[in-house]
Amino acid sequence: MRNSFDEQLASLNRELISMGGLCENAIARAAEALTNGNTELAKTLPELSEAIDEKEREIEGLCMKLLLQQQPVARDLRTISSALKMVTDMERVGHQAADIAEIITMANISASDDTLHISDMARSTIKMVTESIDAFVKKDINIAIAVIKYDDVVDNYFDQVKKTLIELFSKPETDGEYALDLLMIAKYFERIGDHAVNIAEWVLFSITGSKSI
Question: What is the pLDDT of residues 109-129, one digit of tens each?
């Protein structure tokens, strides 16, 4: 019985890695679309977001199967409940990457000095999402804590973006709608970082029973 349960837990890990890869791909596509002004690439995000939604449903089904058909002990219950919470955050990452792509497509935004820090934010959020999933699979508290602390880096980039855009707004020739679109994109990346923090906190809970560092 336990061997079967462990095999299903291993399958859960694989599915989470797969969903994490889809999320990383979504963020990377959104970032590349922004950097290169590639609206055609941005248009592929809704389909990728749907794939993330489908993966979420598959993982939820697997978790329910583990809960109903097996006899998990306390730590196993924490692992399964944490996975259920994590996929909700991962699903939001996919939707927010699609929201970024929609803005890029509708506003036809391309790379400029104004988007430099936003690109830095994108790379940082990819790192956070990747490592938060890695922490869960490896059951590594230190990786999870590092992700939580790294959120300060993304927040600092967001502050720099806001400073840049404030300066941009002060120029009479600035297109206000363009600047607001950039701010929205930056805010979505900042939220993606927050979701990575949530995932890392659920990793801590799955291991220790507490979400606090």
Answer: 665 656 668 888 989 999 999
What range does the domain containing 27 cover?
2-208
The number of domains in the chain is 1
Taking the CA atoms of 209, 132, 185 and 99 in sequence, report the sign of the dihedral they define: negative
What's the CATH number where 197 sits? Answer: 1.20.58.220
The closest of 122, 145, 121 to 135, measured between CA atoms, is 145
193 exposure class (CB count in 10 Å sphere: 0-12, 13-18, 19+): buried
- Whether the CB-CB separation of 186 and 121 falls below 8 Å is answered with yes
Q: Return the number of other C-beta atoms located less than 10 Å from residue 60's C-beta.
A: 15
CB distance 145 to 213 below 8 Å: yes
**pTM of this structure:** 0.90
Domain membership of residue 49 (yes or no) is yes
Q: Where is 40: in which H helix or E strand?
A: helix 39-42
